[in-house]
Amino acid sequence: AGGQRGYLIHITADMYTVSGVEVLGPFSRRDRWLLPRDRRFVTGKAGDGTVAFLAAIASIGFAWLLLAPA
Hints:
Elements: H1 2-14, H2 47-67
């Protein structure tokens, strides 16, 4: 169930990018988005690595807080 939830979240996040997602692929080659054209995110830039690093550090911190013995 966790893997399916992660997959769904990933696909949903991709729908916020300028590339969009072929939701009905391979039956339809048409991309779909969740945001208007002027609000979509560009990915593949230098800042992506920084955001990923900070998210990883935050995830480790939260996991430590939740799993650390009292």
